[in-house]
Write a structure and sequence with these properties.
The chain has helices spanning 3-8, 17-27, 135-139, 166-181, 202-211, 256-268, 284-289, 316-329; strands at 33-36, 42-46, 50-59, 64-70, 76-81, 93-96, 101-106, 127-129, 147-150, 155-156, 160-163, 187-194, 215-223, 244-245, 248-249, 252-253, 274-275, 297-304, 312-315. It folds into two domains: 3-62 and 164-329, Zn peptidases (Aminopeptidase, 3-Layer(aba) Sandwich); 64-150, Beta Barrel (Elongation Factor Tu (Ef-tu), domain 3). The mean pLDDT is 93. The strands form four sheets. An eight-stranded mixed β-sheet has the order 1-2-12-3-13-18-14-17, sandwiched between helices. Strands 4-5-8-7-6-9 form a six-stranded antiparallel β-barrel. It has 336 residues and is an alpha+beta fold. It is built from eight helices and 19 strands.
Amino acid sequence: MYLKDLTELFGVSGYEKKVREYIREKIKDRVNFIEEDPLGNLIAMKKGRVDKRLLICAHMDEVGFMISNIEDDGRLSIIPIGGVDPRAIIGKKVIIGEKEMPGIIGFKAIHLQRDEIYEPPKMENIKVDIGVTKKSEAENKVKIGDFVAFSVESKSNERWFSGKALDDRCGCSILMDIIHSDIDLYYDTYFVFSVQEEIGLRGAGVSAERIAPDLAIVIETTTSGDNPEFPSDRRSTELGKGPAITFAHSGYVVDERLFRWIIDVARENGIPYQIKRRTVGGTDARRIATTLAGIPSAVVSVPARYIHSPMSIINLEDYSNTLKLVSILLTKEARL
């Protein structure tokens, strides 16, 4: 498992370079070929038993921000890259740009607020403080267009793992685990570590056109919703109940043959699983499925609490069971 290293790397959408370099170094000697496409997707292939192609995909990018302006007092205005809730980011540590300049996301102290205390902060009022007092000082350290990423140290014990960017470094780690396991793959399997998923599923479509696979499986990290304040009917998935299998999400109904096949394989092998019960959000499967003349695609996910925030949590048994299920799927002929 590569979660600790992967989650502590910075890879906001469009700036996945360090994540890509780390993954490439770890897997390059365990695949038949490896390449980076013009958009920045990392594609690795391992030969299978039949001359057909399966694409398995996880995205490298994470939500974050970009500097949109440097103010006269040296503070930085930012815009979100991907879906980020402003209520979850106040006071959090961040890293800025290739120089990895540290900063703090600041906001008006509660003592100075009146009616606005009952309203969520607006992005235009949120600034990043890098410890300078003049625009000229800030311009020597950062520039407009630099990425801004959450800076979080991951934590784990026997049951739980917490850190930033679990969406979708969990998926990346699972793909890396499978590459290192040397299982007997049924299809020629193309492992795609995609870019810019969080801003519109950009990378996966490019990779699918390049590979022209016969089918695809997307490995994701999905929202759990098992917060104590949520009633059970609002819970998309729950931690500790196994990998989440998607039947539909925003913009795409999963190929029913693949959906049923994955469930059957889980049952036959005694792997706990759950059906993702809410259809909000989307994955690279939507873009892959509608590429070329259409590619049958499925989604298997690790449930996580608090995704798209500075700190998410997964159950490590869910991770292990997702890895086990996907590994078995890749040794079998899909039901199509």
